[in-house]
Specification:
Length: 297
């Protein structure tokens, strides 16, 4: 039977939310305010794309849920931390995220900074506790995640480049790709790789999945640029049209909406082609690549 992606996303979100609830300190744990702030943004919704990619990659190799889910949750915690910090007045100064007031609007700037820091830390607590029972693989997973969240071709480095190029209308396509590979791509690449590592993928399988993740990660960002330029804040759950307002270097600014859409489709096709090198049932990953460029939020 063909995969029903909506159902697949819904089922994984339910499983992820249960595990996130288990892995995050409860709101009764003192100091209660910080745990409330962390949970506010984690449970504000969100597509759960990165953790779903961990699950989909791991399930190709029949990796156990008890190893995949905590790792998937760790990536969602890191992603959520990056969104909280990105929305701060010192960065994007945004008031709407996941359809709700941003963390600093509700809890104040200091608590939002700490909630982001705490989610990053909590991610590594989850990984060191549960990311596979095999110690060597666990260290490999932790190293992959730490690298992807860091500064070299990774999340924080990408954010720095993004900030430095704000208002810079001379950015080239190659520079733009470098920013996006780091800011958005690194965590998506990491999600796929850690799922595959937990599942003991062969080196050839890992290489094909890495290629899939790099294409899909870039496609995600191109689609994100198109959505920012074409969708409403209501549909996105975050402020639309922000990129143009601050003269951010984006695919739509550089190439226009139509060419950006074509580029997203081309990247999606390349991601699907990489999957053909794997002799396993990759239907969930194909469907996720298509979802990445067809999503409305
Ligand atoms: C502050 C260290 C630090 C990094 C910030 C993630 C990020 C880097 C900035 C967010 C700004 C942004 C709009 C980036 C574009 C792509 C992106 C990460 C969008 C949000 O991800 P989704 O659409 O969000 O998966 P949900 O809410 O569905 O999880």
């Amino acid at each position: 039977m063909p995969l029903n992606l909506n159902e697949y996303l819904k089922q994984n979100t339910a499983r992820l939310d249960q595990w996130l609830d288990r892995l995050l300190p409860s709101v009764e744990t003192p100091p209660a305010k910080i745990h409330e702030a962390m949970r506010y943004s984690v449970f504000a919704g969100g597509k759960r794309l990165r953790p779903t990619l961990v699950i989909a990659a791991g399930e190709l190799f029949n990796a156990p849920e008890a190893e995949l889910l905590p790792t998937a949750c760790a990536l969602e915690m890191i992603h959520t931390y990056s969104l909280i910090h990105d929305d701060l007045p010192a960065m994007d100064n945004d008031t709407l995220r996941r359809g709700r007031p941003t963390n600093h609007v509700v809890y104040g700037e200091a608590m939002a900074i700490l909630a982001g820091d705490a989610l990053l830390t909590q991610a590594f607590i989850a990984l060191s506790g549960y990311a596979t029972v095999n110690e060597a693989r666990k260290v490999r997973v932790i190293a992959e995640v730490a690298q992807a969240a860091g500064t070299v071709r990774a999340l924080i480095g990408g954010q720095v480049l993004d900030m430095q190029h704000e208002g810079d209308l001379t950015v080239t396509g190659a520079q733009l790709e470098e920013i996006h590979r780091a800011k958005t791509g690194a965590l998506i690449r990491c999600a796929i790789r850690v799922g595959a590592i937990i599942g003991c993928a062969s080196e050839n399988e890992l290489a094909a999945l890495t290629e899939y993740s790099e294409k899909a990660g870039l496609a995600f960002q191109v689609a994100d640029d198109v959505l920012d330029a074409t969708a409403t804040s209501e549909a996105l759950g975050k402020t639309a049209g922000k990129d143009a307002a601050v003269q951010k270097a984006t695919y739509t600014a550089l190439y226009g909406v139509e060419d950006a859409r074509q580029r997203a489709q081309q990247l999606c096709d390349e991601a699907l082609a990489a999957l053909e090198r794997i002799e396993r049932d990759t239907e969930s990953l194909s469907a996720l690549a298509r979802f990445i460029i067809a999503r409305q939020s």
